[in-house]
Structures
1.
Amino acid sequence: MVEPMSREERDAGNRKVKLGFLLLVTVSPPLITLLGDPTAVQLAVATGGGFLLGLLLVWYLSRLASEFTDGSRRPR
């Protein structure tokens, strides 16, 4: 029988998912920018913008997910 995940395992898994999502969102704008033959500055701006957007999305999704976990359960 499979035992439930410990809090440490769950937190480590959540960090990996957040990091993967951040990496995906950060890398997407520069890759799209490469289609238009960008300058180095344009590529850097696209990377920075993607990183900031990724941080914002990870923060928002973390807050949204916390509404469904960690003691937010109401008795029926």
2.
Amino acid sequence: MAELLTDDQIDAAIRDHLPLWKFADNALVRSIKRETFLDGIRLVATVAQLAESMNHHPDIDIRWTTITFKVSSHDAGGITDNDLVLARHIDTAAG
């Protein structure tokens, strides 16, 4: 099982590498707005492929053209390095 990050480590990661993310409800959270519903679904499909290749899956909420990703390591009970990697991959996919 991956090691949990401290609050200070999470804050530093958001500040230094993930400025579009916030820490809420014991997860990294980012909402991304797309021009159309189908653009959002395409983003979800891209992230799903990335997540599957990592065997690390975010919670995804689709609200018309706004997609919200919640990333955490449920089995570890919080944020691990795997979550930071997945969040960066989501940022790359979002462009």
